[in-house]
From TrEMBL:
Name under which the protein is recorded: Branched-chain amino acid ABC transporter permease
A GO molecular-function annotation: transmembrane transporter activity
Originating organism: Acuticoccus mangrovi
Major place of residence: membrane
Classification via InterPro entries: ABC_transp_permease, BCAA_transport_permease
Transmembrane intervals: 12-35, 42-62, 68-88, 100-127, 147-167, 187-210, 230-257, 269-288
Keywords, alphabetical: Amino-acid transport, Cell membrane, Membrane, Transmembrane, Transmembrane helix, Transport
Membrane protein topology class: Multi-pass membrane protein
Amino acid sequence: MNLALIILVDGISYAGWLFLVGIGLTLVFGVLRLVNIAHGGFYAIGAYVAAYAIGAAASYGLGAGPQLLLAFAGAVVVGGLIGFLVERTVLVRLYDHPEVLVLFATYALFLILEDVTKLVWGGASLYAFQPRNAFGTVAIGSLSYPVYDVATVVIAVLVALGTWFVLNRTRTGRCVTAVVHDREMSAAMGVNVSAIMTGTFVVGSMLGALAGAVTAPKIAVSPGIGVEVIVLAFAVVVIGGLGSIGGAVVGALVVGLARAFATHLFPDLAVFAVYAVMAVVLAIRPYGLFARPVARKI
């Protein structure tokens, strides 16, 4: 029973982090039909901004709460600004081109963002563990678990609920849904499609940066952290179904629990768990578990 609880807690904790990493990617694909490899770059920038902000706040004697507030706010603002510049200067010129060209462009942007982090913060690792240590641990059954890791799951739940509310209960969300289904008809009905697409990419960039900021206190922020993350994010959104928010939730849970199960019972195979799950799901459901059916235009 204790092992089952450990697997469950670890799986849900990892799933919460995976959802934060993947939600921006699936949102951008759902609206723009854009496989955004640059998402990993926004994650890395968010992590670096957060680590720098936490270190600066700690040097002024601020507590863990203000440190995290500055870190999250700084990462979101910087991610949003860079996302806006990228979309307005590069991607807006490529929407009418073949998808493979847009894919190459986002890969080039990812490499550029990786180099930007090295130019700004150097090649040394940054450590921002102060907030995670400051919050201590909480007892879950017989386990002692970091409060910060539990808070990560809470943040993921709040982001999921906020995304659902905006998409389903606001006028902006209904406009986004209309653009997803038919851009031409949405434009004919008066929806500012260009603004919706720009706003979606900016929000996706902000969510990627937020995921990096949330992760910063848990890792050594080093060059290359965006590479592994973009692979995991793609695995989650592909399993759930590209463009499906609910699929991202389910995909994160499936991957998180599978990884925790493999880590504790078959540690030698843990590194393959994510990709094994993806292979099985795609063999049964080639477009993911919750992929929307694509209407064929006549």
